[in-house]
Queue: 2 jobs
Job 1
Amino acid sequence: MPVLDLATTELRALNASLHALDKNGENAEFEVINPRGAHAVAVGIDAPVDVHIKGSVGYYCAGMNETANITVHGHAGPGVAENMMSGKVVIKGDASQYAGATAHGGLLVIEGNASSRCGISMKGIDIVVKGNIGHMSAFMAQSGNLVVLGDAGDALGDSLYEARLFVRGKVKSLGADCIKKDMRPEHIELLGKLLSDAGITDVKPEEFTRYGSARQLYNFNIDNADAY
Amino acid sequence: MSHKHPVTTPRKSATFDDYTLSEIRRAAATGIYDIRGSGTKRKVPHFDDLLFLGASMSRYPLEGYREKCETSVTLGTRFAKKPIELKIPITIAGMSFGSLSGPAKEALGRGATLAGTSTTTGDGGMTEEERGHSETLVYQYLPSRYGMNPRDLKRADAIEIVIGQGAKPGGGGMLLGQKISDRVAHMRNLPKGIDQRSACRHPDWTGPDDLEIKIQELREITDWEKPIFIKVGGARPYYDVALAVKAGADVIVLDGMQGGTAATQEVFIEHVGQPTLACIRPAVKALQDMGMHRKVQLIVSGGIRNGADVAKALALGADAVSIGTAALVAIGDNDPKWEEDYNALGTTAGAYDDWHEGRDPAGITTQDADLMKRVDPIAAGRRLANYLKVMTLEAQTIARACGKNHVHNLEPEDLCALNIEAAAMAGVPLAGTSWIPGQGGF
């Protein structure tokens, strides 16, 4: 397995190596050491590869990822897996703001806590957070699933569209147009699969509450002006 | 005995004019602000308030039709491995598929390509029509990130990070449900028929320090090949440009308040942001103060209509200009041949601006399958190319008259202003004087 040391290798060389991988080739494996908070580590990959990052990363790690499996053995700065299309990103520690922002697909697992605006404007990604998430998470979330084993901060799901939010702990407050919804059998099944995909076996889907859009702000109505 | 006194003629208020009265009645009836497309309709100091001096005893002109006057421009020379080369200094501004019909986007791509220049996507992602028909395509990176994906990012020729636009600096957008067809909905990952809000701030960065890191990410994703533009509305041009340079822009697009929008509140369009003329000199000064003029290219937009406007913008220090509204007119927007249809909508050709309603008689700002057939993308593309050619010839004519062998050699010294406001904004002398208001102590 190639080992790239960011203490001695330029970030550009690392990303260029990952971009050079054959999209239709065999699954590759890379290890990155000494990331030391570098930004834009392992971004724009479009190939089957397992990337193991040993340490903490700065902004936008795994940005726009396609296909790759990326694991950060540390913490992640803002915008981890932003605009991800497919593949899997696992953060062993905590994640900062905007985790999974605008992402269209794939699975993001945060084993620690996620800060504010987790899943902002998400467009199809599945996000599983083992800890808590901060305020304004899932703001304007369009589609996909956000699963939180811990608690959620203020204004969860503000102005959200069709994304599904599952929270096991407490929700400090719900944002505009976000309401509690029934867990129907299809949601139990979906959540069971998401937990399984995230490698979580000791928590049951029935322990979660589902939140989603009341769909009252979908078409502008002056009588709703006070909601903003 | 009756006595008839002379009466005064009925007099309407200048403050409460007919338009104002109609707006008060409209607001009272509906309880909602007026939303419309296009840019400001009020009169503001503009390029018409400037004149070129031409050659004279101390300057000699170049021969028209004989001596060459270059018009090419290269954008993205600062960091990008693959700068874009345009034959003319006029580009097509970002306008979204969703707001515009597919045939209209195709026409813009065809026209720009024939003329040797670039066109730009908009909110809602990149369509095959425009990628396929645009030799040089700039891909906008917007707060909504509708349709944003790395595949399109990599097949773009440049990336334009949109911070704001001149019609509404500080504002987001709204595409009303009636324009959300199946295709538009699919591209934006949202249900059909609902209003789609476009955020006013980017979701994953705040401020210029973050933006610097965002740009680093976009460069890494695209292997440092693509020029990165930053587009700002005409708010605080000196500081906005300085911060964009600091954040790592290759190119800055500066859009004044005459720049159009697909849909925004009338009050926003008319009361927020500065005129294009007022923005250029502060922007150029920021570039000069940082030693980056001509190294980071400046594209100016907002109310560019003809070759004289192009020449004046370049003389004030821009590297290129961008057109939106004028390009739409060239492909058929507000054409009097649809006057009956405009009348049926309660308006007239030349005034139609309810672009958000999706009922455009010209078939441009609509997703209606029948209306959009009124745009023949090949013929409309040819008209746009013709128009771009005329603008270029006009700019060359003026440049030659000023003795310049490249339109970029035009300079403020070639200009004077017709009134004090324009002289102050453009930083050129009032005609017949050596007075530049705001300079020299008073």
Job 2
Amino acid sequence: MNFYEAEIIKCQKRIKKIEENPDPTKFRSNKILYEIERDLNFARLQAWKEGKPFIEGLTPPLMRAMGFEPMALEISADRSMLDRSRFETIRALGLPEYACDRTMVCIDMCLKKELPPPSFIVSHNCACDPIKLAYNTVGRLFNAPVAALDFGLEANNNTLRYVTEQMGEIIELAEKKVPGAKYDESTLLELQEYDRAAYGYLNEIYQLRKRVPCPIAGRDAFRMPLAPGFYPDPKKALEYFRIWRDEMQERADKCVGAVAEEKLRVLWAVSGPFFADPFSILEKRGVSIPWFQFDMAMRWSGVKYPLYGDKTEYGRKLSPLEEEARIMNCLSWGSVAKRWVDDTLFVCRDLKIDAIINFKQVGCTATIGLAKILEDCAEKELGIPTMHFEGRQLDPSYFDPVQVNTQLNVFVDSCLRRKGLA
Amino acid sequence: MEQQLRGLLAAAREDNRTKWALEWRKQGGKVMGLLCSYVPEELIYAAGVLPWHIMGTDQANTSRALVYRSANSALYCNRVLETFLAGELDFLDGVIASDREQDLVRLWDVLVHIKKVPYAEIIHIPTDTSPLYIRQMAKETARLRKSVEEFSGKKITDESLRQAITVFNKMRTLLTELYKMRKREVPPISGAEAMAIVAAATVMPKDKFNSELEALLPYLNKRKLAVEHVHPRLLVSSDTLYNPAYIQLVEQSGCMVAMDDLDPGSRYFWQTVDTRLKDPVYAVAKRYLCRPQHPRMVPWDRQVKQVIDWVKEYHIDGVLEMPELYSLPRQFRVPFFHTQLTEAGIPNISISRFHDMADAAQLRTRIEAFVEMLQAKA
């Protein structure tokens, strides 16, 4: 069974469960989420059967506007079945199995034909080395054309122009190399409209996170819905965002937060163990987790960084292609430390965060080297402590539940003492 | 002359390499530490500053560095940070890094965070070499030029840059001459010696290096190398391999390292700056971007082609790739490199290594097995 088939079955089961026995503590909008996901995977499966071209490495609206089906390699890995034999396959190939596990797992998924072969790959350095290198690897394994997409170390008009020019050349190359690839600006504009609206809802949800108690449960702080431009039915996907925003508003208005008596507000950074739920440990102690900080988080929620249509960031109106370049140009952790630290501390101030839990994802070249810098700056500039917690997103062999439980509780104890609440 | 050669071979040894920088400072000059060979050195030279490549300690203990970094991250970067934190590089007036790989950017971030150097700069290196990327590299080079001018207090004119290009091109030409001698059945220098000479170029004042090597070349041309094995002939491919003892270990396994794809090695000096180009900044940028590539560059196929060309040119029997553990660009490229070389009919093997020689015994065993396979094939 391939990944899309597995996802369809998973979504269908979840929809059925909601219809038959809805859990009142969970979002009602989850049903529509599983429906759009199910439909996405049906569409991807169909595209695969029909031999339509798949691509990875650009923004979803741009990939669709070029006539491709977006692959979402590492996102697929995030949702895959846990299987340690994948690392053995990776090791046997000579690849570094100690690299970020989601980038390793997606390579294995392609090799095992759980995902379709790519027709075109864009190896970009916007986020991190493992993604850039994994994409290049996948492209080479399947003899797909591989194009580079570089981002500078600062976001300014020079780098915006640089990124936009590269995107233009990539479009030309894709049209030349891949039958059926054809860029359509009107499609891009249409998808950008849907995404702009969705990001607007995310911004509204962000504003709710400022409330005390925080209406977002820890696990839901991790919720990273794909923007409508990713889905074959962007209109329905946008509807999900609207309903989710309404539900969040409703919870906030009724003060139905994740914790009954909020004592601490913690920012969770980078990533986490997808197979476990450390947030429940924290919530039992009265700890809210208003925000999950990762590379695109602030951009997607329009926090500090504006989105489609904004004229202030670059001092002018941007073209449709420049708008896509803007999205990818200098993500929080894709640049030098200053950007990640400034962005994280900005959110800490904005959401009145008391402490940071920084997940040190094994093999993450983007963030492991930032951990101590963030810790030092958070303490110095905001007087808040940071706890580092090492692990892998998909590999439970790094996770000792007893140790994690102890570590989190000790950290909470020390934070409460600092706040005079112990 | 053999004594003079010994002197040059020892120039970049761990116990020796700082003397060039300290002497420079004694004469009132400034020293710029370089963390990457993609940084255009001509700019620094033109500003009257000594460009000095940072190699990192060969000592295994990196406990200071591990406060800021993970043990499972690029070992070169851990070693360099350790050297800084031990105070061994306090003589540096500045440091320039690149975004060659993300681990290197993070090293630079820590140096800035702990305010370890008075001046710290970082440049973006594009990952491909089409005209668009060369233009961007030229912009970065121009930006770096302004930054170095401010740092040094000296204007880098086009004329001074052209003079610097002349000096560096001379270095590259001299090293190319030296490397041509390695095509011989019995080269006059071993692989370890070649690497040590290139490493010397990265820490010595260029004028001095040029005059030393220029004086030695006639001697080397006639030198009879006392060597046990001239076959099989290997090409060694790696990155941040600064210790010639690694190449020595390979050659002691029963072969000759007749060519390399190394930094420092061929990739440091291969290809001169094109002095016919009107804009010296553009010319420098083009050279640095378009020379033989590091695996962080996206076109892996071109990197393999370069190695295949060298295999033919230097009559190589087998390719030994030695990725440094936790250095991701090369580690990710391993399967592609292996497949392509194999399809080209070139015997090859990839053996991961540490930064120091901690794994010497295991390495030797595996290399010996590869060499025996090549001998049997012959």
